[in-house]
């Protein structure tokens, strides 16, 4: 990496260097310092600067003054951490040091709320209200946090009930019809013994984009979220307490707000339009769906934690229960392949919704779409997610119910030797549905399977129930080898037993999609796995286990500087794709199976299951405070080697769509990161961070041409700079202002990054020249500026705020589908602004 070419490096260096000359002169005369931050990263309370882990801790003051309300609001403040939030609420992909969480697989980081590990994948993207602190731990944390903590851990601490009555009400309004209201009440039910807290939040926004077909501005990226949370603490006596937490939320939001783009250079010459090989960063987004695009979720979570002081140690035990019910529905993706061309609904729509009557929807002819009126069947170039019924629809469900138990002993904190020992158990039941079917114009039943006589018959169905049982034992030993040198040895053993049963009925499809008829023109099976399993698709099971050690050496070189070095292993369980995945892809894309794949010959190696993922990480770091704790500077260098990295692949074709998990055999990510906080003057704080990554795919059996490419979602540069200023305005009222600049470098989303491979078009046109080229499918670098200014008193505040003030237009996600010959692209939020208020009783 050439650091001289990194604009953020120079900016950060200049900010740091410019502060140093004045520090020594003022250090003796000024009394203000950076406040100590207490974290619980090693399952005990410790000073942030003493913990030998790369941690970003966001305290209560920053949460309020930065306006942090969802995960996306704080991720940009952390070097080498990025987030993608697109398809539906909760479908977030978090990349920590280049190791990214994967759709349809387990997460890559542990998400812990009030000391209780959450197994619900949607918990991470819930509303963050009434929160006290957020800690982001980087690098494998499997030794203490177990399953799936291959990239790190995120710990959230909510506000605890108080022994004195307090209440708060707040809210705000913003552009795009946004408003929010929240309230909290806390106090003793039985003084000193039973304390309770109740908080409520509701918010709504119309979003930034509108449906150009229906002229509605509140049906694309809208969101309505109402959440209720309560927490009770029962202090039985001085040694025993119980902490009970409950939450319930309902969400109604938009879903699958993507546009498609081709990436086939041969189409440019064949069809005479540059639109068929266009940089995805230059797309003009048009949303024009005719289905009721929506995502509805209902979530219940309960957790009970006991803390019992036994004298020699604390016994900490928790039990947690989560229940998520979710569905989403949207337009389909296969209109270009003419599957529903001959249905009455498609023919009727083409009479009134075509490129000649609605150029506002389809643009100029073949730029890149061309929808022709009836009589020109099987001609033109349709797009997915269109106003016509020709693209069908898709329906998905993600339902999960889980129960987990954790119990551990934590030694007393005094003395040169400390330890932790614990066990963990979880039972997880997950239902996954992906259905594709016909839009007949008669409405939509929201169900996994709709019969051929229903309003929206199902033509392709993946429907599986997954049952996972987890057992684990873990522990950690910490030794003070000298007064300044600590050795920590941690280890965990995880065992997972996984089973999957198929729920797809053994029936044929509706026959409306001509691409899914058999060789005799009859409706084929609704799932391709039935072709090889005519009596029914069998259940599957497998088990995965891993020993996860971690060794850390921590040296207090002086009162101001700590150095540490660590080695650790992380583990993410293997799993199952929906049954029928392998058969479907072989038929359409691979040679040797008697289908269109004979002409494509993509040589895919996607199976109905995938292996466990194991990460090995090395890290050397420094934590320091200078000038009487006015400057805090932390930095680390690291390398992570990953075997069988689980990678999400999206396939689109004449059959509809398919989601699957594949593996990248071997890859590495290495890099550097640093962050600083500087109390420059009374009330004036500067802060920032820099993250640099170097990554490479070393072996990829599924797509060998990708070897040597960058790891997906591992941008070379990320960082932030900011300033916060607090000035006494009048009386007890402070003027508080904050500006945040955040930068993310160029990012690839797929392993193929310009290497040409065959597409389904080679079969459809009978010529092996229509190969894809994803060289124009990376997301450009971008930066955003957020600002807040307001008045704060002891019991009230009023704040004006703005996000993305420069109205930067950038992509949130690019999902390449190589065998389709293009990508599916999602824009990000534009400029938003508003006013918030709060009043504390």
UniProtKB/TrEMBL annotation:
It is found in: Cell outer membrane. The keyword Signal applies. CDD domains: ligand_gated_channel. Residues 412-805 form the TonB-dependent receptor-like beta-barrel domain. GO terms for biological process: iron ion transport. Residues 1-27 form the signal peptide. It is a multi-pass membrane protein. One of its GO terms (cellular component) is cell outer membrane. Residues 48-153 form the TonB-dependent receptor plug domain. Keywords: Cell outer membrane, Ion transport, Iron, Iron transport, Membrane, Receptor, Signal, TonB box, Transmembrane, Transmembrane beta strand, Transport. It comes from the Bacteria. Belongs to the TonB-dependent receptor family. This is TonB-dependent receptor.
């Amino acid at each position: 990496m050439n650091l001289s070419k990194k604009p953020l490096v120079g900016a950060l260096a200049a900010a740091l260097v410019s502060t140093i000359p004045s520090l020594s002169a003022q250090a003796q005369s000024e009394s203000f310092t950076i406040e100590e931050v207490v974290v619980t990263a090693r399952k005990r309370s410790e000073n942030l600067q003493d913990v030998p882990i790369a941690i970003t801790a966001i305290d209560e003051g920053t949460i309020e003054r930065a306006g942090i309300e969802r995960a996306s609001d704080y991720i940009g403040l952390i070097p080498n951490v990025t987030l993608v939030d697109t398809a539906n609420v909760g479908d977030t992909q978090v990349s920590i040091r280049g190791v990214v969480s994967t759709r349809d697989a387990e997460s890559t980081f542990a998400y812990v709320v009030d000391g209780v590990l959450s197994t619900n994948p949607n918990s991470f993207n819930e509303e963050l209200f009434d929160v006290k602190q957020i800690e982001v731990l980087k690098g494998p944390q499997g030794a203490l946090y177990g399953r799936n903590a291959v990239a790190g851990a995120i710990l959230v601490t909510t506000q605890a009930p108080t022994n004195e009555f307090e209440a708060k009400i707040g809210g705000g309004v913003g552009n795009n019809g946004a408003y929010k209201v929240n309230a909290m009440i806390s106090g003793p039910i039985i003084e000193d013994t039973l304390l309770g807290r109740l908080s409520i939040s509701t918010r709504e926004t119309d979003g930034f984009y509108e449906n150009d077909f229906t002229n509605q501005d509140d049906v694309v990226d809208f969101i309505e979220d109402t959440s209720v949370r309560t927490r009770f603490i029962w202090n039985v006596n001085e040694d025993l307490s119980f902490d009970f937490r409950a939450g319930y939320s309902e969400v109604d939001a938009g879903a699958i707000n993507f546009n498609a783009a081709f990436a086939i250079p041969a189409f440019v010459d064949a069809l005479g339009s540059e639109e068929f090989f266009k940089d995805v960063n230059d797309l003009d987004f048009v949303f024009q769906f005719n289905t009721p695009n929506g995502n509805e979720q209902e979530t219940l979570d309960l957790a009970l934690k006991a803390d019992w002081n036994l004298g020699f140690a604390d016994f900490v035990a928790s039990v947690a229960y989560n229940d998520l019910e979710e569905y989403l529905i949207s337009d389909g993706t296969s209109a270009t392949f003419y599957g529903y061309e001959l249905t009455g609904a498609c023919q009727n729509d083409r009479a009134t919704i075509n490129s000649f009557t609605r150029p506002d929807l389809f643009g100029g002819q073949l730029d890149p779409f061309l929808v022709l009126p009836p009589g020109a069947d099987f001609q033109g170039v349709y797009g997915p997610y269109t106003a016509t019924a020709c693209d069908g629809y898709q329906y998905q469900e993600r339902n999960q119910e889980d129960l987990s138990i954790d119990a551990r002993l934590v030694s007393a904190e005094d003395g040169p030797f400390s330890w932790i020992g614990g066990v963990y158990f979880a039972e997880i039941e997950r239902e996954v549905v992906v259905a594709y079917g016909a839009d007949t114009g008669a409405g939509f039943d929201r169900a996994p399977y709709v019969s051929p006589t229903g309003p929206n018959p199902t033509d392709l169905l993946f429907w599986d129930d997954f049952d996972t049982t987890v057992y684990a034992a873990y522990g950690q030993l910490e030794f003070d080898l000298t007064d300044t040198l600590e050795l920590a040895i941690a280890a965990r053993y995880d065992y997972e037993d996984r089973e999957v049963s198929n729920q797809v009925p053994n029936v044929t499809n509706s026959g409306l999609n001509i691409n899914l008829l058999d060789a005799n023109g009859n409706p084929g099976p609704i799932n391709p796995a039935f072709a090889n399993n005519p009596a029914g698709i069998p259940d599957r099971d497998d088990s995965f286990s891993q020993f996860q050690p971690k060794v850390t050496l921590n040296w207090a070189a002086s009162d101001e500087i700590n150095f540490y070095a660590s080695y650790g292993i992380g583990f993410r369980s293997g799993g199952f794709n929906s049954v029928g995945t392998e058969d479907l892809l072989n038929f359409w894309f691979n040679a040797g199976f008697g289908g269109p794949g004979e002409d494509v010959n993509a040589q895919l190696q996607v199976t109905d299951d995938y292996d466990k993922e194991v990460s090995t990480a090395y890290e050397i770091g420094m934590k320091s405070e200078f000038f009487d704790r006015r400057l805090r500077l932390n930095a680390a260098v690291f390398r992570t080697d990953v075997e069988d990295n689980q990678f999400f692949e999206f396939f689109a074709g004449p059959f509809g769509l398919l989601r699957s998990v594949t593996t990248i055999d071997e890859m590495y990510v290495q890099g550097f990161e640093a962050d600083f906080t500087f109390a420059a003057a009374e009330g004036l704080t500067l802060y920032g961070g820099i993250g640099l990554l170097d990554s490479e795919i070393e072996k990829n059996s599924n797509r060998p041409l990708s070897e040597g490419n960058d790891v997906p979602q591992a941008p070379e540069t990320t960082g932030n700079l900011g300033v916060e200023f607090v000035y006494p305005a009048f009386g007890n009222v402070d003027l508080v202002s904050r500006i945040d600049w955040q930068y993310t470098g160029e990012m690839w989303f797929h392993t193929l990054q310009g290497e040409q491979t065959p597409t389904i078009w080679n079969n459809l046109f009978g010529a092996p020249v229509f190969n894809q080229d994803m060289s124009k499918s990376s997301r450009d670098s971008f930066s955003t500026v957020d600002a807040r200014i307001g008045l704060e008193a002891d019991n009230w505040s009023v704040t004006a705020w703005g996000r993305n003030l420069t109205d930067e237009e950038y992509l949130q996600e690019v999902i390449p589908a190589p065998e389709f010959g293009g990508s599916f692209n999602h824009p990000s939020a534009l400029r938003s602004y508003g006013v918030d208020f709060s009043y504390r009783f």
